[in-house]
Amino acid sequence: MHLAYVSLPGRGANDRFLAAIAERAQAAGLRLAGTVQVNIQREGRIKCDMDLRVLPGGPVLRISEDRGNGARGCRLDAGVLEAAVLGVTAALPGAELLLVNKFGKQEAEGRGFAPLIAEALSRGIPVLAGVNGLNLPAFQAFADGLAAPLAADEALVVDWCRRVCGLQPA
After folding, report:
1. Phi, psi (5° rounding) for residue 124?
2. DSSP string spanning 150-168?
3. 13: which of 8, 31, 59, 95 fits an S-S bond (Cβ 3.0–4.6 Å)?
4. In the chain, what is the straight-line distance between the N-terminal and C-terminal CA atoms, in Å?
5. Which residues contact 2 (CB under 8 A, 6 or more apart)?
6. With contact defined as beta carbons under 8 Å apart, do 135 and 143 qualify?
């Protein structure tokens, strides 16, 4: 069983890093299932729009609700997140690697991608996840000591992906 995670400091750092990893892994011939997040800044807005691209080839889903500049609290559209989970579930049988952009609050509560991560691992499909510092304790509890932290080094992470998928490192 192969479960690894990256946890980079800074807003959107995990998203940008994992999008680059997905691009490089697909270019190396790996068959991915999962999601990458793109954050889109809008003029006059404090918070960005959050879009998820379902791997390997789409669709792109807006997972953030536009509640205005004064809104506080979670902006996640949980229904759209679940639609993304369904899309990834459909792609999982043909995948060599599951890439989950974020182990977040939904996953910490056992929803979102948490069941799919467990399903992938039970099928022998390696999993790479992004985890922010706030959700790291919940992720570590979920992983029960089985998750390996990976450094913020694209070449190292792509080599890990290739190795756990049975390919030689580049």
Report:
1. 80, 15
2. --S-HHHHHHHHHHHTT--
3. 8
4. 22
5. 126, 127, 148, 164
6. no
Residue 26 tokens read as 């697909």
Mean pLDDT for 60-69 is 70
Give the 3-state secondary structure of 31-58. Answer: CEEEEEEEEECCCCCCCCEEEEEEECCC
Q: How far apart are CA 161 and CA 3, in angstroms?
A: 10
pLDDT digits (tens, 9 = 90+) for 71-116: 554 566 778 888 899 999 999 999 999 999 999 988 999 999 999 9
Mean pLDDT computed over 146-167:
95
Rounded to whole angstroms, how far apart are CA atoms 158 and 69?
Answer: 38
d(CA 104, CA 102): 5
